[in-house]
């Protein structure tokens, strides 16, 4: 992954669903075991995903050395503030809390979680994660965010990776940030790679997490979205995984059976060039200035 030396699998496990979805520990254990056995070696979480870190910490006991463990700091943690807090005094405590919850001495990647461009430029938050790396609490450091701030973070020359939203419904960073990340040899972690499969819902409430993707896809109108659901998911996933510069795509999984389907989709390789070009051309034709990257 970039210059980090990590040989990551093309698919990774996203820990938000097990934190927000009230998934039982026994189910998390089964999902994590299935993922590792299927060759997935990246597990990404955050201290703000409720019980996700603690559940992963339990599920990974005895298998920590088999995987690369990523987490994020800056958006509050269990027992601490619920809102983003970028105080240089709080962040080290948040990082230590994450390590304790994950039952590990160090994570492979510690990421600043969607802090502003102003905070990145000011520098204190970066020094905190750099200190964590110096202290051996993190092997690498990164930034997780979108849009202009992602591009700004990528060009700073201080991070090892960039995590950002990439999907058929979220293509802003393909031209905005990915070329910069490639130039600086950053590992790129693609989040929300299948746009929360928003097109598979008959409708979504206006305040639903995936609603912006639902609305965008209505406008984009890709004909393959109306086909076989499994095939449409495979097309969307392959579009993201094989974008130039993407190291790993993080998919949230709450059902073990989805793992085999996702792995099989990626094993089919890149989409035909003409389909990728058509998807990107349609985005450029339809996307409006407010179709910015979504966290």
Tell me the strand percentage band. Answer: 5-15%
Q: Calculate the terminal CA-CA distance, rounded to whole Å.
A: 22 Å
Count of DSSP strands? 8
Number of domains: 1
Query: What's the main sheet like?
Result: 8 strands, parallel, barrel
Radius of gyration: 18 Å
CATH architectural designation: Alpha-Beta Barrel
Q: Which oligomeric state applies? A: single chain
For this structure, what is the CATH homologous superfamily? NADP-dependent oxidoreductase domain
Structure description:
The structure is a single chain. This protein is α/β, with parallel strands linked by helices and 295 residues long. α7 links the parallel β5 and β6. The mean pLDDT is 93. α2 (25-37) packs across α3 (52-59), α3 (52-59) runs parallel beside α4 and α11 (229-241) crosses α12 (257-267). It is built from 13 helices and eight strands. It has helices at 16-20, 25-37, 52-59, 90-102, 117-122, 124-134, 147-154, 172-176, 178-183, 211-220, 229-241, 257-267, 273-286, and strands at 11-14, 42-44, 68-73, 107-113, 138-144, 161-165, 187-191, 246-252. It has a single domain, classed as Alpha-Beta Barrel (TIM Barrel), CATH 3.20.20.100.
């Amino acid at each position: 992954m970039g210059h980090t030396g990590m040989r990551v699998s093309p698919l990774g496990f996203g820990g938000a669903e097990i934190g927000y979805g009230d998934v039982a520990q026994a189910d998390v254990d089964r999902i994590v075991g299935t993922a590792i056995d299927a060759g997935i070696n990246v597990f990404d979480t955050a201290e703000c995903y409720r019980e996700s870190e603690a559940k992963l910490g339990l599920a990974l006991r005895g298998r920590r050395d088999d995987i690369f463990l990523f987490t994020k700091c800056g958006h509050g943690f269990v027992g601490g503030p619920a809102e983003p807090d970028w105080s240089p005094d709080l962040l080290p405590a948040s990082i230590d809390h994450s390590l304790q919850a994950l039952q590990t001495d160090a994570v492979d990647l510690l990421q600043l979680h969607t802090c502003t461009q102003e905070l990145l430029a000011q520098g204190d938050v970066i020094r905190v994660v750099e200190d964590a790396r110096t202290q051996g609490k993190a092997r690498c450091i990164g930034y997780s965010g979108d849009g202009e701030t992602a591009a700004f973070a990528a060009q700073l020359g201080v991070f090892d990776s960039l995590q950002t939203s990439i999907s058929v419904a979220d293509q802003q960073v393909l031209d905005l940030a990915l070329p910069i990340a490639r130039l600086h040899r950053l590992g790129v972690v693609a989040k929300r790679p299948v746009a929360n499969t928003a097109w598979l819902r008959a409708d979504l409430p206006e305040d639903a997490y995936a609603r912006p993707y639902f609305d965008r896809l209505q406008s984009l109108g890709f004909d393959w979205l109306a086909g076989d659901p499994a095939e449409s998911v495979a097309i969307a996933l392959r579009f993201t995984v094989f974008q130039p510069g993407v190291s790993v795509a993080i998919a949230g999984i709450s059902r073990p059976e989805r793992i085999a389907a996702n792995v099989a989709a990626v094993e089919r390789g890149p989409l035909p060039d003409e389909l990728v070009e058509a998807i990107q051309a349609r985005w450029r034709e339809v996307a409006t200035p407010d179709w910015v990257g979504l966290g």
